[in-house]
Design goal:
By secondary structure, the protein is an alpha+beta fold. The chain has one domain. It has one helix and five strands. The longest helix is centred in the first third of the chain and has 56 residues, at 10-65. The mean pLDDT is 84. Residues 8-58 form the Type 4 fimbrial biogenesis protein PilX N-terminal domain. It holds the Pfam family PilX. It comes from Stutzerimonas xanthomarina.
Length: 163
């Protein structure tokens, strides 16, 4: 059988092009897999931070359910009056006036959740009858921040509590 000169090596060339295409598809699949893995890790980290912030809110609300609350006039130790200039900025991670949950409360977080409580307003409600005592109702703004496994994953939650 005779092979013409123009057909020499064409099978090799076609197989090399095919191999190059398969390699490019493989590399693209690997990059896609790596990206999905990073997204899943970031999503998990944010979910851990959200759960930590929720734990901070629950702790602060349990404190507010207690019999004695305050004093808010000192504007320290995580208890503040609304509109006070000393209320820490929740975006600043270096604020020292936040109350933190005890160490080792939550595992797998960069730092334990922190919270502040602001006394927003205190109102009096009059009784329906002349002999009924006046009831005092207080509203509190609770701000909690939680961290994930890395300090970059931070979630801030806020709730209003009526007592």
């Amino acid at each position: 059988m005779r092979v013409s000169k123009s057909q020499r090596g064409s099978a090799l060339l076609v197989s090399l092009v095919f191999l190059l295409l398969l390699t490019m598809i493989g590399i693209s699949s690997i990059q896609d897999s790596i990206l999905q893995e990073r997204m899943a890790g970031n999503n998990r980290d944010r979910e851990v931070a959200f759960q930590a912030a929720e734990a901070g809110l629950r702790t602060a609300e349990r404190y507010l359910q207690g019999a004695v609350v305050g004093p808010f006039e000192t504007n320290a130790s995580g208890l503040f009056t609304a509109g006070s200039v000393s209320v820490p900025d929740w975006a600043m991670s270096s604020s020292t006036n936040w109350l933190a949950l005890p160490a080792d409360t939550l595992a797998g977080v960069d730092s334990q959740p922190q919270y502040i409580i602001e006394e927003v307003t205190q109102t009096g409600m009059f009784g329906l009858g002349a002999d009924e005592p006046e009831e005092s109702i207080s509203f509190y703004r609770v701000t909690s921040r939680g961290y994930g496994a890395s300090p970059d994953a931070r979630v801030v939650l806020q709730s209003t509590y009526r007592r």
